[in-house]
Amino acid sequence: MKRLSGYSKQIVVFAVAAVVGGRVTAAERLRCPAVAEERRPALVFVEGPVNQSNLYVAWLEGGALRREKIISARYIEVTQLDNVLFLLSVADGNTDRRVYAADLGAGVLKFVADGTRTHCIRSEPGRRAALLMDANLGAGLIRLLELDFAGLNVTERHRLSSDLLGDDFKFFGPKVRISPDFTRIAYVHKRGPLKVERRSGYELRLLDLATMEVQTLDPNVAVEISMLSSFSCGRPPFEWINEKEVIYCSAAPAGPAEVVGFDANRVSIFKVADTESGQSKELFRKSLRLTLDGGSLRIDPLTGRLIYNGRLVLDLQRVLLTPKNLPFAVVCDYPSRTTDILCGQRVLYTGAAHCVGQLASASGRSFAYALRERGPSLHATLYAKFASRDEPLKVAEGPYLPTRAIGWIE
């Protein structure tokens, strides 16, 4: 274990009592649509032409679909923090970039920060708080900000810099993972020089924000990316599963690949590192399709489920990977060029269109999906299957980017 050097510890752990953005006026606390209990389930989604994003919420009212606009901007990035709370990063140009917290339960939209460098790295609805990262990597500075769900206030907790972290700083960013109590950061440090390679070696490391001590949890974590990837190299996926354990995935030693179509499957080893003992244990091995960037593991704040690559649920009790959106499923038959969208055994759609997005609610009772017809057109239509209605409804249409489903409120 080593201690990072540089400035004094008082500068490292910059826990201030001041709220970020103290200049915010009453006008910065705006009204937005409120989704009361009787309006749920409701779908939050983006619709718009190219270079124009309109964020809406839609629900059923008297059997008919009702839509209300939340905000409009040239570009909008949205992260769902809990059932009714969303983090919005909006931009209309190079200078007009802002971040807001939208509480759709109370109907409040509040300014959080200037710029669009602020991302959520962990949301803890049980604690009514989220940890945000403002990463100004060009300036060599990272601020860790805590968002309080009750008042939508943001407090700066820590500052990290390239002077303090040295060579490790370039491995910090939105892909690091912070513990559920917001006290320790897990990250990966690449072994050897940064270069173009399909298979890379990393160390899984831990930074204690109170002491600034660095601990190596596993010195030999491998990642391999798809031959179709345009990334220079990948990063192994990892995530906290409780306040003392980190789960991560390491590629098995290179061997014969299982070729599937234009790509290949490789054996992945899932492991858990105990941060208190410093020991790791293997959970299981599975042959999985190679990804473009190494893949991801994250905790879904709405369900507490561990999500692998955005598509599969990793069940640690039964040691299984199951589709995320069950009982809904999108089935593509490439020889016949058809797509089926199912709810259990019931067919919601069958036809030649591509499914370019899908999103199930936390309960698994509502589902949204976007369809794009085959051919040169980028036009997409977004449909929603509400829990209280058997048939899907069209809720939006436009270019498939930006048009997309964001989250369900239940």
Write the layout of secondary structure elements.
Blueprint: E1 2-3, H1 9-12, E2 29-31, E3 42-47, E4 53-61, E5 64-73, E6 75-80, E7 85-91, E8 97-103, E9 108-114, E10 118-124, E11 129-136, E12 141-148, E13 153-161, H2 162-165, E14 177-178, E15 184-190, E16 199-208, E17 213-224, E18 238-240, E19 245-251, E20 258-260, E21 263-274, E22 280-289, E23 297-299, E24 306-308, E25 312-315, E26 320-323, E27 328-333, E28 338-343, E29 346-351, E30 354-360, E31 367-372, E32 379-385, E33 393-399, E34 404-409
Antiparallel strand pairs: 1-17, 2-9, 3-4, 3-34, 4-5, 6-7, 7-8, 8-9, 10-11, 11-12, 12-13, 14-15, 15-16, 16-17, 18-19, 19-21, 20-21, 21-22, 23-24, 24-25, 25-26, 27-28, 28-29, 30-31, 31-32, 32-33
